[in-house]
Amino acid sequence: MTDPLPAPHRPAYLDHAATTPMVPEAVAVLTEMLGRTGNPSSLHASGRAARRVVEESRELIAERLGARPSEVVFTSGGTEANNLAIKGLFWSRHAQDPARRRLLFSAIEHHALLDPVLWLGKEQGADVVTTAVDRDGIVRLDDLRRTIESDPGSIAAITTMWANNEMGSVQPVDEVVAMARPHGIPVHSDAVQAAGHLPLDFAASGLEAMTVTAHKLGGPIGVGALLAVRELELMPLLHGGGQERDVRSGTLGAPLIASFAAAVDVSVRRREAEATRLEQLRARLVEGLVELVPEAIVNGPADPALRLPHVAHVTFPGCDADAMLMLFDARGIEVSTGSACTAGVPQPSHVLLAMGYDEESASSSLRFSLGHTSAADDVDRVLAALPEVHARASAARAVRAR
Amino acid sequence: MTDAIQAPLYLDEAATTPVRRDVLEAMWPYLTGTFGNPSSHHEVGELARRALEDARRDVAAFLGARAAEVTFTSGGTEADNAAVKGIALASTRGRHVVVSAIEHPAVLESAAWLARQGFEVTEVPVDALGRVSVDALTAVLRDDTALVSIQHANNEVGTVQDVAALSALTAERGIPFHTDAVQSAGWLDLDVSRLGVQALSLSGHKLGAPKGVGVLWVGRRTPWEPLVHGGGQEDGRRSGTENVASAVGMAAAVRAPRPDPAGVTVLRDTFVARVLAEVPGAQLTGDPQHRLPGNASFVFPGRSGESILLDLERRGVVVSSGSACHAGSDEPSHVLTAMGLEREVAQTAVRFTFGSAVTSDLLATAADTVVSVLG
């Protein structure tokens, strides 16, 4: 089988927050499992074997993320898990008490959560309320407290991501849960970017629901999970055969699930050492960037405890980020202007705007994100290309401004 | 497993099929080297994007449709949910939905959800062979009917509907027609113009692609509301990072050579004739003529369906009682009871389903085993 990207042309890939290559352990499990058959709902031996793989994977993922096996609901990925969490919570809580119409969400949620929230507002009668963030991209607890306490009985659910995908800023999930708990309001967190990079313990978090996905931590695209406490009532998004304790119908893909479990296992076990390694690579990168382009601004929290170890978000004043992306790409270096889901859409990032940036700085920022295949050489290639890329992108902006 | 001396004979392909070797090989580069996110605007992302669009074209060609009308989903269940809920919710015709009584739970439960949202749902009955007649459908269509969803072929008894005749009725009235073609894919012509449908669902794992991928085709003139919201992938119709490897696998599966339906039908009929001749009381369920080639399903009144399955498996023949989704449940099949079978008789159902690997020798062995267990 030929590799479409032979080694000499292999790019320096600094876009791991968009998707990261599968770890070898996950590839091995996936390819081995794809060669077998079996519908986990069938009663015969091959069905039972597939079921066993699914249940063992469920146990492994639960153990590594501090949850009970019965709390793991497999989905086709993070977007579906977020849709299930927020629509399911809204529908169930609103059905129990029609006064519960408000959905509270942070201003920097990923589109996979933001869009279902806005849809509930537009089509299903939800009253959607944004919580503001500070200049570092962290939810303002004073703002959230005011919103909750103005009328706690009207709140159907609160959702706050664990760590932001563009900025890497880590959110005060513990405090949000503590504010919601006295009022019995369920809290969901999209932990897609945090899983595998930060220590996650679902039980200790006090959350009612949490989203994770495989392909951001070295597993395959097409599988994820919603962790949801058993007593949480969730109206399903996908109806049918009643798999996944009736919360999510559809035939379970044992190969995808087993591969996901392998990736969770590996990423959690290596997390501490990997975080230290990536933090050092990140330091090498941002120090180099600022040395070469002194006016560059590294955004997000400066305190390593408040940000992901592998993400660096940098503004290059006076530079067109899209031009820089293309110039880097032409040199075999792959970076991003933000979330891949909005890349190509000529809109400034809602995350940066929420943090108080103007459109000008939002359109001159790049995200560099590292991962398990990143090495010093990748960082050095960025730094070697930067002076020329920066000069040409500045010139492009200057020409356009005239 | 003392008496199982060789690999079991797997005759439950309607539940799931093994992943084809050529499908795995097509997917391999996208699981390893070309791992990009197709929404990323760099080279790795572009390669993934191109592979995804090639896959979309192949699937569109399989359906005789336009690529822009093909949406990749996480499977048949999601495709059915998106079609039934999505078309009904977007309809300006009204709030009445028609489904057949023998649909897969993915369609029936989506309709039940619509009923909770204030829709009126009518189940159109089937005859004793599991067929929906033109008269039966005509009788339930209304001015405010927003959608008709009738499967192409049944997963339990293999009965094939005359979708073209049924969709002609809805076309006259401007009602969108969805068909769940999960079971018929690979066996029957799925040209959407010839079927006359406006929406169609496929599942990868019934075609030799992996689990976790499916397709919803909706004609461009039929509006529908997406089920999964987010980053706006799949042209806004289905959010979530695109599963490129699985889409490539799906395309390889629809391109793959298929067994000759007429040949498999002959083998199947020989098998059915032997079981009916040599097992006292055995009855074929479903339509003897309008039937998927790879389906032979029976009831054995007076016997225990559960113990037949166990006895057959012990002797190396892997089959099922019907839908895998309902396996383990005491409830008789809704398909068989809708066809007029008594509950007790429906509980004795045994389904044999097979695909490209079937031979007359394999089916002869299966028939020998059935006769020795039940004869």
UniProtKB/TrEMBL annotation, chain A:
The keyword Heme does not apply. It comes from the Bacteria. Keywords: Iron, Iron-sulfur, Metal-binding, Pyridoxal phosphate, Transferase. It catalyses: (sulfur carrier)-H + L-cysteine = (sulfur carrier)-SH + L-alanine. This is Cysteine desulfurase family protein. Pfam families: Aminotran_5. Residues 13-382 form the Aminotransferase class V domain. Its cofactor is pyridoxal 5'-phosphate. The lineage of its organism: Bacteria, Bacillati, Actinomycetota, Actinomycetes, Propionibacteriales. Belongs to the class-V pyridoxal-phosphate-dependent aminotransferase family. NifS/IscS subfamily.
UniProtKB/TrEMBL annotation, chain B:
Gene3D superfamilies: 1.10.260.50, Aspartate Aminotransferase, domain 1, Type I PLP-dependent aspartate aminotransferase-like (Major domain). The keyword Plastid does not apply. InterPro entries: Aminotrans_V_dom (IPR000192), Cysteine_dSase (IPR016454), PyrdxlP-dep_Trfase (IPR015424), PyrdxlP-dep_Trfase_major (IPR015421), PyrdxlP-dep_Trfase_small (IPR015422). It catalyses: (sulfur carrier)-H + L-cysteine = (sulfur carrier)-SH + L-alanine. Keywords: Iron, Iron-sulfur, Metal-binding, Pyridoxal phosphate, Transferase. Its cofactor is pyridoxal 5'-phosphate. Residues 10-360 form the Aminotransferase class V domain. It comes from the Bacteria. Belongs to the class-V pyridoxal-phosphate-dependent aminotransferase family. NifS/IscS subfamily. PANTHER family: CYSTEINE DESULFURASE (PTHR11601:SF34), CYSTEINE DESULFURYLASE FAMILY MEMBER (PTHR11601). This is Cysteine desulfurase family protein. It comes from Aeromicrobium alkaliterrae. The lineage of its organism: Bacteria, Bacillati, Actinomycetota, Actinomycetes, Propionibacteriales.
